[in-house]
Amino acid sequence: MFNLHQNLSTSSLAVEPESIIGWQGQTAITREMFTQKVASWHATISQIPQHKIALYLSDSIEFAAALFAAWHAHKTVVLAADTLENNCRNLTKEVDVFIGEFPDQYRTQLRTQFQTTLPTIANSAFAVGMTHTDFLPVLADEFPALIVYTSGSTGEAQAIPKQWSQLSTEIATLESLFGEKLGSATIYSTVSHQHIYGLLFKVLWPFATGRAIYADALNFPEQLQQHLATGACALIASPAHLKRLPAHLDWTKIKTQLRAVFSSGGPLSIGSVEAVQSLWGQTPIEVYGSSETGGIAWRQRIQAHKDAWQVFPQLAWRIATDNNLLEIQSSHLPDTAWFRLADQVNAIDQQHFQLLGRQDRIVKIEEKRISLDLMEKALLSSGLVNEARLLLNTELLVEQNSQRQNIYAFIVLTKQGQAILQGQGKFALNQQLRGVLSKHVEAIALPRRWRYLDALPVNSQGKTTHAQLLTLLESTEQSPDNTDIKADSNALNKQPTMPDWRLLEQEPERVLLEIIVPQNLLYFEGHFPIAPVLPGVVQVDWAIHFGKQYFALPANFCGIQTLKFQQVICAETPVYMELIHQAQKQALQFRYFSDVGQHAGGRVLFEQAQTPC
């Protein structure tokens, strides 16, 4: 068995007290400093009487300290994937203690409730007894270390317990496969450690093997360009980030420093693979698995079987004869029973298989697992919907040669729903139903198109097929019904002052929007007569507008830093707007970019209302 604590103690990598375990911004964190962080968290968590605690901290080093402290205190950590209202409410059925960046109504006030005196923690018996390798606990194989949540085949969130042995063996697998390739590389990431992929690759594996980590997620390509060029490194990424690498940035220095790029959470297109190969000189290592099973297989599309997956060592697999579903036995599972997945596969040889697609109705949008069944149940419970059928437009991707994924909603209304449609209009009804769904799924999963029908189409067998629903879309795709949120002036058919937009990605401190500036935008008047160009002041105003919509920004605007306008934004051209809330700096960082490169960017500074600028 791979022992995390023992492996760190005998690692060939540096384990001296002053050796660096990672960086929080520009601050290097030594092993001795990190040990004190663990001791501080332990002094608080050890006083909690409950056995299970929910944990959410965005800083990976602070999260690791709290996680290891909880395990030292023999607590089971419930890993919250996000802090959405519905998920927090569901977590209350599992835990009573919420530690970290949860909404105020859920977050446990540890200092008050448990009378912890933080200034004296460094002198506690636990802290004194620790050495610079003791922050990784020694635990029994059967210790219930973790609970993660994922969507099951029925659409309801399922609690997935993880024993210490499962985590240990999975780390051992990763090190045996890729450790030599990484060497002493520093680990950077674009993904969150609050999911099992990020937890293993960014926190547990590096700490178990003595590799340093960078605490913050790298959301901007410019951040990747800067950090990945500073020394030997590896990147833990997702397809959502790798598919948007701008070719106009100078990536030359990265090619000499980057040891590996990992991608998981969803399929990586061959175009994205080729872009990473060209720009970074690395072929991404794609990892296939799930919250239930852990890692199952991996691939690097550079040789034979380029589309096939190679199974992890010491993993047995077979294909169910009745439906071609993959079944596995693995030490990453809690027992030796065969586990059946919802993925259909085709065998290549004893070590390779091809994925053919999912059998259930769990779909992925930007690496987020979304249950169409759960969304339909939520709509039916609203009292406004008699029948609901949701469809991911995967089929349309081939026909339109587009990689954009959206969910389409086909709705049969109740009398109450019909009254809202007739009295207030389609836009108001769309927004009300989006509000219903937003309590259950992230904004990226909200339907892009809504069709209200007298009845769902059925075939001779009385079933509604995808083909029938796609046929209903053909007439609307020529002049789509835009249901994205807009300013009141847009809704009232006045000359618009805001763009058409939709939310692509949302994290606690980051959002990514797609905007399209309408041709008749008010601010185009006089700017300029030959070809309308979006004014820079409008771009800043929109960034602040959407920033206030998604983040709790301070009241007073104080100024702008690093403001640059590189390329014009024209009408009817899709552009991405990325916003990052830098809460500690009381700032909002924004940038506009598209396939042609960066258009604009800057940082808006704020102050609280009671503190004048």
TrEMBL record:
What protein name applies here? Acyl-CoA synthetase
> Where are the bilayer-spanning segments?
none
User: Which InterPro entries does this UniProt record tie to the protein?
Assistant: AMP-bd_C_sf, AMP-dep_synth/lig_dom, ANL_N_sf, ApeI-like, HotDog_dom_sf
Source organism of this protein record: Undibacterium flavidum
Cite the ApeI dehydratase-like domain residue spans from the record: 506-601
Q: Which SUPFAM superfamilies match?
A: Acetyl-CoA synthetase-like (SSF56801), Thioesterase/thiol ester dehydrase-isomerase (SSF54637)
Q: Where is the AMP-dependent synthetase/ligase domain?
A: 49-299
